[in-house]
Amino acid sequence: MTRARWILSAATLFALWLVGALVCLPHLQRDLETAAQEVLSQQPALSKRLGGLHLEFDGQKAHLTGSVRTPADRSLIETTVRDQVRLPTPLSFGLGRSLNPVGGLQSEVEVIPSPPGWILLAADGAHARLLGTTANAYEARDLARSVQEAWSLRGGVSEGMPGTDAENHDEAASISTTLRTVPAPQSRAQAYLARIGQSWKELTLGKSDAELLTEARALGVSEDEWQQQVRPALDELRATQQQQLLTQAKSEHLARLPPGYLFIAVRDQQIILRGEVGSTAMKQEILEDALAAFAPRRLHDEIRVSAERRPSGDFGPITTALLPQEGKAGGKSCFLSFSGEAWKPVDWQVAPREQSWKNDLPSGLDARLLQNDSTWLSNWLQGDDSHSPAPSQPRDPAFIALTLFGTKAFVSGQVAEEAVRAQLIAAVRLAYGAQYIVFSDGVHVSGDCEPSGSILHTLKSLPPPPAAGSAGMFALAKPGSTWTLIPVTRELVEAGGLAQPGRIPAGIPAAVVEDLAAEAIEQLRMHLTPPALH
Fold first, then answer.
1. d(C-alpha 292, C-alpha 452), whole Å
2. Would you call 378 helix, strand, or coil by DSSP?
3. Is 473 in contact with 484 (CB distance < 8 Å)?
4. Is the pTM higher than 0.90?
5. Which 3 state secondary structure label does DSSP give 225?
6. 310-329 pLDDT tens trace
7. Are strands 98-99 and 189-195 parallel, antiparallel or unpaired?
């Protein structure tokens, strides 16, 4: 081969190489980049974790830059690109085989983890709800369990499970700081927020939404998470806090009110309760105790209820020790108690303005009120009938109705004492419970009802049950008296049947009996009605 031919051949080869470099090489690089991206996207462990990776080829050499979230991610990416990229080649001769054309790998990928998630404790006193976002279900479960344990060790109860967002969060390297600083429950509404792995920060509920959003975003809460989770929880706590503040203000106001006071004056067989208390419930409790302690003396209610008196604090126990001593001339006595204190004797025979209770008067209590009541009672005790109390209004009569038929026993009526109601129901269950289903909703307790007195005789003399297959039994009694049996007929269960002359014992209103025993009478009417023929 001549020199000229050698030169021509070399020029031809160089030209062919240059054409390959300019035409084929860029096409190969693009194919390699596409193939590499495709094989990386097929790795389940890298799903949604390639957003920070940059991949390009210089010829057949791969160049990796950017960032990933873990060393394991980086290692898997490098191994995948180096060993698993495939492209069809002309050498396969149509047999479907492909070769790995990656000739080298240069990796400058940094490991930059995503920030950990956040958790929120929204607490109403000792009861708390746990919200938040974690990296995965395992971290959510472990955090919820650990926070619940830490909160309960401080006397609280918590519930709830954080959500997960693996795309934007990685697990915290350590959660010991978060668990070590779990706050203690308070009596008020409170909210604590923490970036997982860091200490808790209390969110002041009185701040504006804009201020709290800024604090929350600094701890990892996104705008969507703020709107969907954090803000609704804070709104609930604010409403609770507002209610707590109102309750506290009311309690403080009531605590500043002066206490109530009560005189008990006894003359012969009459007793006057006179004074001022802070609630109807306090008055009712006083009257019930007095009725039980002083029976059969006549009790006069001169107790006023005022919103200007503290509605709490018990008076001294009302017992027969407040009655005049046996054999003492005159048979009279007078005592005074302030709510929350014991009874003190009042010398009703001295001049009204010289009473010793003036030295013990609680702060804020107007002495003029006590002076008026004390003078009024002193005059009454000294025999001035112009100061006698107005006659008591007649009380509703107490009675008990008992209806038995089939397998049902209905107890109805009205009494003045809850204890009497409980004793009555217990006695009926003991007497008939083995054979009958006892219904007792018709027994009412009314403060307007006359005292029951001794009910032992009535409970011990419950009538025997009716014979099997009979029409049934209807009986009435006043507490302390014997039972009156009323024959069960069709006329008895019709409207107005109880009002027929001679059926109801004197002193028991038939209309009230029908009203309170309405269900029993209706059931008895159905019992007496023969089944329809088919």
1. 9
2. helix
3. no
4. no
5. helix
6. 888 888 899 988 998 775 65
7. unpaired
